[in-house]
Amino acid sequence: MSEIKIALLGLGTVGTGVYSSLLKRKPEIEQLLGKRIRLSGILIKNPAKPRSDFQKAPLYSEFEKILGKEAPNVVIEAIGGIEPARTYITRSLEAGCHVISANKDLIARHGEELIRLAKEKGVRFVYEASVGGGIPVLRTLRELLRINKVQHVEGILNGTSNFILSHMRTTGCTFPEALELAQQKGYAEPDPTNDIEGLDAFYKAMVLSKWIYGVQPLWEEAEVKGIGNVRLEEIQLAEQLGLRLKHLVLLDDSLELKVKPVLVDSEHPLYGVEGVDNAVRIQTDLLGCLTLQGPGAGAEATASAIVEDFLSLYETGSVYQDKPAVSEVVQRKQAKEGTTYLLIGEKEHISGETISVLQLQGAVLDTVSLPDASVIALLYAGDLPVSPLPFTSIYPVRLSSASEAAEEVLL
Amino acid sequence: MSEIKIALLGLGTVGTGVYSSLLKRKPEIEQLLGKRIRLSGILIKNPAKPRSDFQKAPLYSEFEKILGKEAPNVVIEAIGGIEPARTYITRSLEAGCHVISANKDLIARHGEELIRLAKEKGVRFVYEASVGGGIPVLRTLRELLRINKVQHVEGILNGTSNFILSHMRTTGCTFPEALELAQQKGYAEPDPTNDIEGLDAFYKAMVLSKWIYGVQPLWEEAEVKGIGNVRLEEIQLAEQLGLRLKHLVLLDDSLELKVKPVLVDSEHPLYGVEGVDNAVRIQTDLLGCLTLQGPGAGAEATASAIVEDFLSLYETGSVYQDKPAVSEVVQRKQAKEGTTYLLIGEKEHISGETISVLQLQGAVLDTVSLPDASVIALLYAGDLPVSPLPFTSIYPVRLSSASEAAEEVLL
C-alpha cells in the first residue's frame, strides 16, 4: 500500500482542526483512498510553546524542513494572510506538491499566478475552504452545475457580520457589545477590521467571481460596505416591517459586485440564515435558484472542506479543477428594475416637504417609528433621487420570494 | 469526433424538458464532452398526437425500435411509475446502455436490482432527479461529503405538499382550494394521492436512505402521514405561535424514518422554504449542518438534474456511483430527548382537568385560541402520555436553531 505524505503549515484554529480531523479519520481516509496517509511535518511559529497534543508528527519552525529532502505529496496551508503564505505555497508547488489552502485574501489577490504555477508543475491547487467555510460552494458550482449558467449569486459570506447582526436583533444589544461577544467566541479576529468592514466577504466574492466567470470585477469598481455603522434602532425598525438586515455579497454575470448590508423579507432564502452560518443563493438559467447553507467558520467545518479537498485530489480525475463549466460574462445594459429602499432618519431633520416630494415621485411610502426613538423610516419603491436626502441610512430591500422564484422557473 | 447516441423514453413534462434542454444546450454539452450528441429516438405513447416541435429525432411508439439494431449509449427514462418503466430500464441495461431516471417509485422499490444489473453489464444507472428535483442532493452526499458521516437528514421532498401548506398559510384558503390550484399549476398530478398522502416523499426518503446508508428502513416500520387532514385553523394557530407547518422527511443513522407534518420555528433552516421548493438539511459529524434548497419539481429543474447526470457519465470516473462514502447505520438506544408538541382540539371536548393533568406532568403549557373558532391549542414540552388525549391534532414541533446548531458545532 503506497503512502501519501502530508505537511501542515500553521497550528491556529484551522490548522488544529485539520490536524485532529486527519488523525481521527485516518482509517476511513485510508480505506477510501486505498493508500496510507502520514503527517510528515507541521510548521509552527513558536517552537517553545508546549503542545502535548501534537506528538504524532514532527514540528518544525523553519519552512525548509517541511519540504525536506523528499517533498511531501500534499501541503495544507493554514497560516492565512499574504506573506509568508504566498512564498510557502509557491515553493511547495515548485517542489511538486499539491497545495490545499483556505486563504481567501491570498487567493483573491494572487490566485491566478498560483493556479498557473500549479498547472505548469502538473500538480493541483485547491481551496474550497476559502469561500463559505464548510459549505462545498466551489465544488458544487464546478462539478455539479456543469451545464447550468450562473446568472447571479447572492451570499452571506462573513460569519462574523452575520453573527453580530443576528445577535443585535435577537438580544437588543449594541454593535460594540455584539462584536465583543463575537471576539470572545472566537468568531472575530482580535483585529476585526476585515470582517466588519466587509473586506473578508469582498475577498471571497472575488474568489467566487474568478471561479464562476473566469475573471474578477475591477477591484476599485466594486461597492464594498461593512456593518460598522449599523445601529440597533435600524435593525429594530426593520423587524417591525418584517425585514432583517443581512450583510450580502451580490454578484452577477455582468461582473457587477456589491458587498453591503441589505434588508431581506421573510420569503427571501437568506432571511433565516442566522448566527455564524454562511449561505449562497445561486441563480442559474436551467435549474433555477439553488441555495446552500452551512457553518461559515469554525475549526471542524473548515477542516471538513480541507479534508474533502484532499480526498478530491486522489479520488477524482483532474477535469473539474481545470475545466470551468459554461458560465460567462454577459454585457448588459444598465437598465435595472426599480428597487425598494428603507430610508431611516431623525424626525427633526426630515420635513413634511421631503416626504411629499418622495410621494410625488410615484414612490410607495410607509411610515414606521419606534416609540422611544426620534427616528422615522420610509419604505420607498422606485429610483432614488440623485439629490442628497436628509436620511442617516438608506438600505436596499430584497423582496425576493422563494415561491415566486420557483414559479418563475416553472411557469 | 465520436458521437453519443441518446434515447428518450416519454414526452410528458419531464421528457419535454429534457428534450428541449438537450437541444438548446447541444453546443455547450458537445464542447464540455468533446463529443457530438444525437437524439436517436423518442418513445411516445400516442403516435397520432400532433407534435410539431419534435422534428429533430425519430418518434417511436414501440420500445424495440428505441434499442434498434445498434443500441443507444444512454437511455433517459421519463415515463414514471413501475411498469413498463422497469422492463424498459432492464432491457436497456442488458443492451449495454447507461440509464438515467427520475423515477422515485421505481428506484425505491427496485433500485437495488437495477443497480446490480448495471454493475454486471459495466454500465451506470444514475438518478439524481429522483430526489429533490433540481437540487443535486445525491451527488453532494456522495461526491462532496466523502469523509462526513451523515447523522440525520431532514427534508421537504414533496413540492406539492409544500406548495399547498404555503398557499393555505399566505392566502387563508382551505386545503381543497389549495389542492385545486396546485393541480391547475401542474404541480400535483390529476390523481394527487401520492403527493398528499406522503407516499412521494416516502419513496424519495427510501432512495436517500439506500444512497446514504446502503440500506432502507423496513417499509412497514416507517411512520408515513400526509397533509390530507390539515385544517386551515391549525395553520393559522401555528402562525400565531411563530410556527409553520411543513411536511418533513426525518431520517437518521439508526434508520428511523418519519414522513409527516411537523411544526418548525423561524430559526429552523426549513422554515423559509416555501412554494414548490424542496430542501434537505444534512447533519454530519464534521461539517455540521448543511442545507440545500431549490426547485423540487418542474420541467427545467428536473431536466437540469438529468442533463448534469448525463455529463457525469462521461466527465467523471465511475468511482462515486459505486463507492459510497463513510456513513453507516448506528445502533442506538431508544432514549430520545423530550419533544415539544402542539396539541389542538375543540374547546368543548377538552376539560380543565385534562389541562391540569398535562401541567402536573411537568409540561410547559401555553394556551392560544382563535377568536372565531372553537379551538384550543396547548404547547407541551415533554413525553406525551400514552393514554388517548382528547385532541383532534397533535403536531411535533422542531425548535432547532441554525445559530444554535452552528454553535454546537463550533464550541
TrEMBL record, chains A, B:
Reaction(s) catalysed by this chain's protein: L-homoserine + NADP(+) = L-aspartate 4-semialdehyde + NADPH + H(+)
Keyword NADP included in the entry's annotation: yes
Database matches in Pfam families: Homoserine_dh, NAD_binding_3
Pathway this chain belongs to: Amino-acid biosynthesis; L-threonine biosynthesis; L-threonine from L-aspartate: step 3/5; Amino-acid biosynthesis; L-methionine biosynthesis via de novo pathway; L-homoserine from L-aspartate: step 3/3
All residue ranges annotated as the Aspartate/homoserine dehydrogenase NAD-binding domain in the record: 10-128
Homoserine dehydrogenase catalytic domain span: 136-311
EC number, UniProt record: 1.1.1.3
Keyword Amino-acid biosynthesis (UniProt): yes
Superkingdom of the source species: Bacteria
InterPro entries: Asp/hSer_DH_NAD-bd, HDH_cat, HDH_CS, NAD(P)-bd_dom_sf
Protein family membership: Belongs to the homoserine dehydrogenase family.
Descriptive protein name: Homoserine dehydrogenase
Annotated source species: Fictibacillus solisalsi
